[in-house]
Write a structure and sequence with these properties.
There is one protein chain. 51% of the residues are buried. Helices cover 32% and strands 22% of the residues. The protein has 10 helices and 14 strands. The termini are far apart. The strands form 3 sheets. It has a 6-stranded mixed β-sheet. Strands 7-6-8-5-9-10 form a 6-stranded mixed β-sheet, with helices on both faces. The protein is of the alpha/beta class. Helix 6 runs parallel beside helix 7.
């Protein structure tokens, strides 16, 4: 595969992408608290489609959310933009946290990320990934340059390695795990190791932003979550210089069969690119070049500490960009 050229995200591109997510969030916001998640998604999708047409780029959708939950979406392969400008791949969630928005709860946002053509891994038919995310620790004198965490290691060992790299006790680590039956064993292991468990129901993108940023309030995110969100999360982690590992984690026999067939049919360079690696896909394979992430809050979102030059947050409504994660 030819090398991917790092992009230059100019002011016009940034402004037009911000206008697009702002349009999606503005369209969804009147429906907050109404109880109809599909209506929230549909309003955001319609607004986003119109706004993306004006983006000065050749945009190709890699992941547009929605299929897993049979919700309105932008479809993989769809093209947007004026066609004049850089060739970019787009991952987008018109409303991440649809159920939160429908219920009038914090943590719902419109979010997209663009990267050079070919930069994102293709998750194929996978709906779920096992994920591990943390900020890259500053080098501790005499210690290794990286914490050395792995999806193959027990939770307690990963926590011990991260604590050592941070030069802190395990008991001080704050670990986010989505509250789902599929993650119960992970949550139990975090508690047993003595770390602080941050359980959350929805909003793993928001938590990844906090785990990947060195100044965030989370030290680690673990557990199985959505595959489409995983590409957005990879872009966020890349923007903050953090660490992310992921691997397929099918949650049904049907999904397992689809993922197995997809893996069997991957191109010859797939193993080299990490797509078929049994030990997990590294960040450099999930998002192989710098990505620009653009976010607009639909309900109050804890986004204030998660900033980098490659993360643009619409803070036009200050009350919706908060600095604190929802309580456990």
């Amino acid at each position: 595969m030819p090398p991917i050229t790092e992009p230059a995200f100019d002011d016009d591109l940034r402004a037009s992408l911000l206008a697009a997510v702002r349009a999606a969030a503005d369209a969804a916001r009147p429906l907050v608290g109404g109880g109809d998640g599909d209506a929230v998604d549909a309003a955001a999708v319609d607004a986003l489609r119109l706004a993306l047409a004006a983006v000065p780029a050749d945009l190709r959708v890699v992941s547009g959310e929605g299929e897993k939950d049979d919700a309105p979406m932008l479809h993989p392969g769809e093209r947007f933009g004026t066609g004049a400008g850089p060739a970019l791949d787009l991952v987008v969630d018109p409303v991440d946290g649809t159920r939160l928005a429908a219920a009038g709860r914090p943590g719902a946002m419109a979010i997209l990320a663009v990267a050079p053509r070919g930069a994102y891994a293709d998750p194929g038919p996978a709906f779920y990934l096992d994920k591990l995310v943390h900020a890259r620790p500053a080098a501790v004198a005499g210690g290794p340059p990286d914490a050395g965490l792995s999806l193959d290691l027990p939770v307690a060992e990963n926590l011990a390695r991260l604590a050592s790299a941070l030069d802190r006790p395990v008991s001080s680590l704050r670990v986010a795990v989505q509250a789902r039956p599929r993650n119960a064993a992970v949550a139990d292991a975090v508690r047993a190791a003595g770390a602080i468990l941050h359980r959350f129901e929805h909003g793993d993108v928001e938590r990844v932003a906090y785990a990947a940023a060195a100044e965030g309030d989370l030290d680690l995110l673990l557990g199985i979550g959505g595959a489409p969100e995983g590409l957005l999360e990879a872009a966020i982690v890349r923007a903050h210089g953090g660490v992310m590992l992921a691997r397929f984690a099918p949650q049904s026999a049907v999904e397992a069969d689809r993922v197995a067939a997809f893996a069997d049919g991957l191109a010859p360079d797939a193993a080299e690119r990490g797509l078929a690696a049994p030990r997990g896909i590294a960040l450099a394979r999930l998002c192989a070049a710098s990505a620009l992430v653009v976010i607009a809050p639909v309900t109050a979102c804890a986004l204030a500490p998660a900033r980098s030059p490659l993360v643009v947050v619409d803070d036009r409504a200050p009350a919706l960009v908060t600095a604190a994660l929802p309580s456990d």
